[in-house]
Amino acid sequence: MHEGSCHCGAVRLTLPSTPAVATKCNCSLCRRGGGPWVYFEYGTVQITGHPESTMEYIWGDRTIRNVRCKTCGCVTHWEPLNPEPGAKQGVNLGNFDPELIASVRVRRFDGADTWKFLDEE
Ligand SMILES: [Zn+2]
């Protein structure tokens, strides 16, 4: 079990499995303070302190909410606004143990432009 939390501990997340790959995205939001992201089926990540200790930010095509702790400001995760069966959510791996972070392969994703992984070419 991998348990992580924001810096102050108000928001805690438990992953359903060990991630092998994470994504570092360069879009206008992620490049400022998101990720690396790991993705799971919506609802399978156990989260405490949300929404009572969190703030949300919704932008662009308004399909997901980006969530951060309202005390320490750390970005914890994103989730779909209108989840459909099989929908994904993202978790900011930076809230987890440094050894876990170091063990996960990080792929750079060009969310700013081509929506492709930059290591695909
Ligand atoms: Zn916090």
Description:
Strand 7 and strand 8 form a beta hairpin. 25% of the residues are buried. The protein contains two helices and ten strands. The chain has a five-stranded antiparallel β-sheet, with no helix packed on it. The protein is mainly beta and 121 residues long. Helix content is 8%, strand content 39%. The structure holds zinc ion. Zinc ion binds next to loops.
Bound molecules: zinc ion
Strand content: 35-45%
Give the spatial strand order of the biggest sheet: 4-9-8-7-6
The chain-level mean pLDDT equals 94
Structure annotation, total helices:
2
Radius of gyration (Å):
14 Å
Helix content: under 10%
- Report on the biggest sheet: 5 strands, antiparallel
Order of helices and strands: EEEHEEEEEEHE
Which regions contain 5 or more consecutive residues with pLDDT less than 50?
none
**E-strand count:** 10
Structural class: mainly beta
Shape by Cα distribution: globular
Question: What is the distance, rounded to the nearest whole angstrom, between the alpha carbons of the first and last residues?
Answer: 34 Å
